[in-house]
Design brief:
Blueprint (H helix, E strand, L loop, with lengths): L12 H13 L5 E5 L7 H16 L3 E5 L3 H7 L3 E5 L2 E6 L1 H6 L4 H11 L1
Parallel strand pairs: 1-2
Antiparallel strand pairs: 3-4
Length: about 120
């Protein structure tokens, strides 16, 4: 609503992302897919987009989110799947995934990105 009459070329990256989410929601999807929703954003805009996704979660929207934002994944996820070279190596709830990963490759990844 806030950007209804704005020229899309004048919107920030975060605003464009939120407008895209709003457009997708107009179709009343049962599931939303987010493929790295923050990857092209200025670091200051990341929080705005993540807040929109948190709101959708709180409203019960089913979402599949591909992300490297591990803190965000831990906070909003019910299930986490870890893929390496196109293969799902591990699937678990956030607590188990981050605190007790089963696979050695998962442990290596988490050690690199969290420390």
């Amino acid at each position: 609503k806030d950007f209804l009459y704005h020229d899309v070329r004048k919107l920030s990256g975060g605003q464009k992302q939120r407008v895209a989410i709003a457009r997708a929601l107009c179709m009343e999807p049962k599931v939303m897919l987010f493929d790295e929703p923050t990857s092209a954003l200025d670091p200051e805009m990341v929080g705005e987009v993540l807040q929109v996704i948190k709101t959708l979660r709180d409203e019960g929207m089913t979402m599949v989110i591909v992300t490297h934002e591990m803190g965000f994944a831990k906070e909003v996820s019910d299930r986490i799947l870890f893929m390496d070279q196109g293969i799902i190596l591990e699937e678990n709830n956030p607590n188990q995934f981050f605190n007790h990963p089963k696979e050695e490759r998962t442990k290596q990844f988490l050690n690199r990105v969290l420390h």
